[in-house]
Amino acid sequence: MSFNTFGHLFRVTTWGESHGPALGATVDGCPPGVEIEAGALQHWLDKRKPGQNKFTTQRQEPDAVRILSGTFDGKSTGTPIQLMIENTDQRSKDYGEIAKSFRPGHADLTYHQKYGLRDYRGGGRSSARETAARVAAGGVARAVLAQLVPGLKITGYMVQVGPHQIDRARFDATQIEQNPFWCPDATAAADWAVYLDDLRKNHNSVGAVIEVVASGVPAGLGAPLYAKLDSDLAAAMMSINAVKAVEIGEGMAAAALTGVENADEIRMGANGPEFLSNHAGGILGGISTGQDVVVRFAVKPTSSILTPRRTITTGGDEVELITKGRHDPCVGIRAVPVGEAMMACVILDHLLMDRGQTGGVRGEIG
Amino acid sequence: MSFNTFGHLFRVTTWGESHGPALGATVDGCPPGVEIEAGALQHWLDKRKPGQNKFTTQRQEPDAVRILSGTFDGKSTGTPIQLMIENTDQRSKDYGEIAKSFRPGHADLTYHQKYGLRDYRGGGRSSARETAARVAAGGVARAVLAQLVPGLKITGYMVQVGPHQIDRARFDATQIEQNPFWCPDATAAADWAVYLDDLRKNHNSVGAVIEVVASGVPAGLGAPLYAKLDSDLAAAMMSINAVKAVEIGEGMAAAALTGVENADEIRMGANGPEFLSNHAGGILGGISTGQDVVVRFAVKPTSSILTPRRTITTGGDEVELITKGRHDPCVGIRAVPVGEAMMACVILDHLLMDRGQTGGVRGEIG
Amino acid sequence: MSFNTFGHLFRVTTWGESHGPALGATVDGCPPGVEIEAGALQHWLDKRKPGQNKFTTQRQEPDAVRILSGTFDGKSTGTPIQLMIENTDQRSKDYGEIAKSFRPGHADLTYHQKYGLRDYRGGGRSSARETAARVAAGGVARAVLAQLVPGLKITGYMVQVGPHQIDRARFDATQIEQNPFWCPDATAAADWAVYLDDLRKNHNSVGAVIEVVASGVPAGLGAPLYAKLDSDLAAAMMSINAVKAVEIGEGMAAAALTGVENADEIRMGANGPEFLSNHAGGILGGISTGQDVVVRFAVKPTSSILTPRRTITTGGDEVELITKGRHDPCVGIRAVPVGEAMMACVILDHLLMDRGQTGGVRGEIG
Amino acid sequence: MSFNTFGHLFRVTTWGESHGPALGATVDGCPPGVEIEAGALQHWLDKRKPGQNKFTTQRQEPDAVRILSGTFDGKSTGTPIQLMIENTDQRSKDYGEIAKSFRPGHADLTYHQKYGLRDYRGGGRSSARETAARVAAGGVARAVLAQLVPGLKITGYMVQVGPHQIDRARFDATQIEQNPFWCPDATAAADWAVYLDDLRKNHNSVGAVIEVVASGVPAGLGAPLYAKLDSDLAAAMMSINAVKAVEIGEGMAAAALTGVENADEIRMGANGPEFLSNHAGGILGGISTGQDVVVRFAVKPTSSILTPRRTITTGGDEVELITKGRHDPCVGIRAVPVGEAMMACVILDHLLMDRGQTGGVRGEIG
C-alpha cells in the first residue's frame, strides 16, 4: 500500500534523497539466522558505485553501507534491518537555475505539480542514487537465498546500448565483469566504448536494454493472478528510475510468434519435467516453471545532457536549459546491479509467500 | 499483499474458475454516491464477450453481471461492491486427457507443482474467463472516473497481430469499433482477417500487441518510486493472462533513442505547461504529466491449438497432445477491453491515493 | 489496506448488506489440498443463526452457505474461495421512519455523514448479519487448522451478561452447548434467562462479555511489534459489530497486579518449557508461548430497543424514536461463534506468516 | 502486511534495538508542504525520555532525533521521512545471565523459540526504547494534523496505577504536566508517589491504565468494518509493549449497561448534531461521530524486577532469576506520550484515507 515499499512478506522501504545526509532501506520480514555482514553487502554496492570509469557519473561516493539494526553477532534476528548509506560528495554548487526550471525528461515538473515543492538538489528523491538502497537490500535478499536455495544464481548484463545489440552467438558469461558495460559480448563492448565516447563528446546520452536471468529458481513460486511472479517482476523493474518497458521471456516478440512456435514442449528428465525451449521466460500462469527466469528492461537515455533543450520555469517563463553536472552518458550501465537486486528481492519474497501458503510442498509427477 | 487483489485504495479481488458456478469481483474502497448500474457494467462486458465472431472462442456466455452489494437506489454506498457473473455454458465433456496431461504453454504444470491439484475444467482459475471480472470492476472504475474527472477517456485498440502492425499514418479512431479486432487501421483489419482465417484453418494461433491510451488524466497522479503510476500499470497489465511485456510511452524503443531525441520539451500553453512530444507516455518520475498515458502490452499466442505438441502426463509419461475445444485463434483480441479496464482501475486508484495524500492540490506555475 | 479485509496471508474480505440479495466472504490465500465442504461450514453458521430461541432476533434465515469458487472435488485449490449466503427473509416493511431518522447507538448518523447516503434497510452494511460471512470464513480457517495443527481447539463462551458474571468455580465446558447463552456455568445460565426475559419485556437490552480460548496453539506465532498476535487479535475482535473492548489474558486487571504477581514463572516440562500460570494469556512480546491464547471482548447492549430515545432526522428535526423490529435483547449471545471465527482466522494467518518467514523451525531448548 | 509497519496511507515502520547503534522510524505517505522540524519532534520525545525522575528507568539517553530524509527547507516533500535516534547510553555490562536465561514476563522465550536467536542486550527489539521511534513518528503526525485540522487536540494521562484510580470529580487537565505521572488528579498523584516508592523499595513493580482523548476529530473518519477507526486504534494501542487491553468509550463497562442507558441521544446543536452523552467514545459503526474519541489501555507491571522468579535457561536448566538493571517501577508512566503518538498516527491515517475515498465531503443534515 505504501508509496515507497515493495514486497509482500520480504518488504523493502527505501528512503533518502540525493543530497540529504543519508539514504537507505528498511528491510522487514527477513528470515532469522542468516549471516548478514556489511562487507558482503558492500560487494554489491561497489558494483553499482559511480565514478569507476568514464562511462558513468564522476560523482565520488564511497557508498559505504552501515547495518543499524536487525542483526546480532552477524546474523539476522528476524526484526527490521536498517541499511544506511551516508552521502558524502554533495558538491556545493549554485542550484539557482535547476531550482527554478523544470529539466525535460526529469521528474522536476511532476514533483512540483504533485507536491508543490521539491528537493531540487541533484534530483532529490528521483535521483538514481536511490538505487544504492535497492542494491543494499538486494544484498540481504541474496544472503537469504544463498541459504535457502543454494544453487540459485542471478546474473544481469547489458544486451543493447542505443541501437547496438549484442550478438547472442558471441555470448560469453565470463566477459560480463571484464568490461565497463556488463556486456557478455566482448566485440560489442569494444564497439559500445567508441559509440558512447562519441555521444558524450557530443553532449548527448543514450538508452539501453538490460537482461537479468535467475537460474535455479524452484518451480512453484508465484500465484495465478495479481501476485503473479511476472506481475511483481514487472512492477519491480518498472519502479527503477528511467525504465520504460519490461519483458518476460520472449517479451514483445511473443506477439509475432505462432502458437506452434511458442509452445515450450515438455519431456521427462532425470529430475522431473524438462522443457525443450524457454519462450515463457521461466513463468507460466504467473508461477515459476523451474527454468531460467528471464527478464529484460529498457532504460531511457539520461535526461541530463549538456545540449540545450526548451523548457519553462516555475514562474512560467520559457527558457532553454543545459543540465550541467556529472551525469552518466548511459544510465543503463549502472542499472545492471540494480536489476539483479530487484530480481533477488522479488524471488525471495515469493519464496517466503509460497512457503507460507503451501509449506513448500510440490505436486508429484510420475 | 493478497494473491488475487490489485489496487491500494480502490481494491479489486477477483474470484472464480472457468467451469465453477460463477466468477466475479469484490470491489472495495469505491467512493460513495456514484451511479453504478448493472446495465452500464454490461456494456463493457459485452465488448469482451466470447462468441461474437469467428475470431474469438465460440463458447456462448451471456456474461450477465449482477450487483450483489454495495449500491442502494442505484448509487454506490462506499461499502464493498460484489459483482457476480454466472457461468452458463459449461459444456459437458470428457476431461480425461486434459485432466492427466500438462498442456504446453498453459499453467497446468505449474499449478500442479505448486498446489498439488488443479481444476482442469476449462483451465480453471487460469482461464481467460477471469478477465470478465476485471472488465466488470473496470466498469465501476469508469463510472467513478466519469464523475470525478469528466473529460477523462480510455481507449484500447490492437496495433499488431502476429508480425503485422498497423500503419500509424492510417490511424482512425472511428474505425476501432468497426471491425472485430478493435483495429484503428481499416486496411490492416482487412489484412488481419485473412491472416487469422488462414492460421485458424492451419490449427495455429498468434500473438498480438494492444495499446491503451488514457487522455485527460490530471497531472500529479502516482508517486516517486514503488507506487509509481507506471509501476502499477506494468503490474496490472502483466497480471492479464498471456501478457509477456509492458511498455510505457516509447517502451523498448527508448533504448535506441538519444537524450536529445527523447527529451519532451516544454512550453507554456494557455492552461499550463505543454509538451512538444510524448516519448514519456505521460509519466515522468512515476507521476502523470497531464499528457496522454500510453501503455502497450504483448499477448502471446493462444496456447490451446489443434496441432499436436509434445508433453508429459501427471504419471510422468511422454505424450503428444492436441488441445480440442473452442479457443481464440488470437486471444489478444479480447484483451483490448481488459486492458482498458485495468487502466481505469489503476488511474482511479491513484486518483484516490493522490487525493488522500495531497488533497488534490497542485503546485502552481507562473 | 483495504477497508473490508482482514488478514495478511490468509485474507478475508466480507461484502453484503442486511437486505441486499446476498452477503458473503472472499477468502484469499487458503492453503491448497484442504477438504472444504459447504456442509462443514454450515455447522458453524447454524451456531450463529438467528431465530433459534427467544433470546435472539426472530428473523428467520437459513443462512445457507454456497461455495462458488476455490475448491475442486471438495478440496481447496489455493485460489480464492467465494462464500455466498443469500438473504431470504427480507421482511417487507415501511422504512420511512428509519430512513429519515438516525437511531441512537447505530451507525446511521456516521454513515450518513461519511458517505452522504446509506442503505437503511435493516442497518445495511452495519447489520450484525455481516458476521455470518465471518463465521463462514472462520469455518474455512478451522478446516485448514484441523489439517495443519491437529490438536488446536477454539472455544468461545459468555462470561458476563449485564452485571452478572459466571462463577469460575462452576466452570464446566460441557455446559456450553447446553443452554442458549453458550454459558459454561449452568446456574448463571438459568439466572440470565430470567434476567433477559425481564429486560425484553421492559423493551430494553443489555451488554455482555465473551471469552474465546485457543488451546494447542504452537509457540512462535506472531511478531515483535505491529503484527503482534495480540495486536491482530485486538483488531479482529474490535472489528465485530458492537464490540467496545478487547482483553488479552489478565486484560484491564493487569493494571492492578504487581510484577511479582504477574510473572508467569517457567519450569521444564516433559515436552519443553511449562508456565506455572497464564496471566499473559498465551502471548509474550506479541508471540505465542504455547499456552492457551485467551481473549475477552465486551459487546455493548443492542441499540435497537422499543423504548423511545431522543434523536434527530436527516432534515435536522428533533424526534423521539422507537426502533421496531426483530432485535436481539443481547446481541452478545450471537457474538460467541463470531469471536471463535475471528480467532481461527487470525491464528491461521499467523501460522502461515510464521511458516513464510521462519519455515516453522523453532529454537531449541535444553 | 509488514511485520513492523502500521497505518494504511500514513505508514510508519519502526526499526532498531535497545543496544544497537540507533533506532528510528520510516514514515511514508506524509502529506507535502508541512513544517517538520527536528526541534518540534524533540518536544514530544523529551516527554517520553527516561531518567527524568525516580519513577522511571535511570538510563540516560538524550533521545535526540535526526531527520535524514523527506524534508526540504524545513517542509515535508511527500517522500519518506527517516527519523533516527542514536543510542548513546549502552552501559557496558555482563549479559551472561540474561543471555542464557528467559526472564519471566519477557519476550526472551518467545523470541528464542520463533527466531532461534535474539539480541538479549537490554531486551533487543522488545525493549520499550522502541517506543521512542513511535513518539517521533507521532510528532510528524501531529504536525500534519495541526495544519489539516487546526482545532484537533490529543491528550493522554494516567487514570490508574495498580489498584489506585483517579477520582474523576477531581479531574483537572492543568495538573497533567505538573506531576511525574501525567495524572489529572493532584491528590491521586501524591498518593501514587508514596505507593510507587514503596513498591520500588520492595523490588516490585505495578501496572497502570492510560486514557488518551482526541477532541476536535471530524465526523466521518473510519470505515464500517475491518478498517474501523476503533479497530485500528485497538491494534495500535495493543502494539505498544506491555499493553494487555484496549477500551473505547465505556469499554468493558459497556457489558453491564442496558440499551436505554447506553444510547447516546442526539439533539440539533448550532453546528450540527450534538450528543447528550458519549458512551460510544466518539465512534459509531467504526466511524468518528465528531465527539471526543476516548481510548484507554492497560499496561502490565514491568516484568524486570529485583525479586527472584523461577525460570529456565537456554540449556533447559531450572533457575531463579533476578533482573538487575535500571527498570521503570511502572512502565505505564512512559506509555502516556506513546499512546498519544499512536492516537495521532491513527487519526491522521484515517483522515487521509477518508479524503481519498470520499474527498472529505460530508452528508448534510437539516
Characterise this structure.
4 copies of one chain form a homotetramer. With 366 residues, chain A is of the alpha+beta class. Chain A has 8 helices and 18 strands. Chain A has helices at residues 38-48, 96-100, 108-115, 131-148, 186-201, 229-238, 259-262, 335-358; strands at residues 5-6, 11-16, 22-28, 65-67, 71-72, 75-76, 81-86, 153-161, 164-165, 208-215, 243-248, 266-269, 272-275, 283-284, 287-288, 293-299, 309-312, 318-321. A 5-stranded antiparallel β-sheet of chain A has the order 1-2-3-7-4, covered by helices on one side. A 5-stranded antiparallel β-sheet of chain A has the order 9-8-10-16-11. In chain A, strand 2 and strand 3 (22-28) form a beta hairpin. The model of chain A has no long low-confidence stretch (mean pLDDT 93). The B-D interface holds B 1, 9, 29-32, 78-79, 224, 352-353, 355-360 and D 1, 9, 29-32, 78-79, 224, 352-353, 355-360. Strand 11 of chain A pairs antiparallel with strand 11 (243-248) of chain B.
Instruction: List the uncertain runs of chain A.
Output: none
Task: Please provide the ordered H/E string of secondary-structure elements of chain A.
Answer: EEEHEEEEHHHEEHEHEHEEEEEEEH
Helix content of chain A: 25-40%
Largest sheet of chain A: 5 strands, antiparallel
Oligomer: homotetramer
Structural class of chain A: alpha+beta
Strand order of the largest sheet of chain A: 1-2-3-7-4
Short synopsis of the structure:
Four copies of one chain form a homotetramer. By secondary structure, chain A is of the alpha+beta class. In chain A, 26% of the residues lie in helices and 22% in strands.
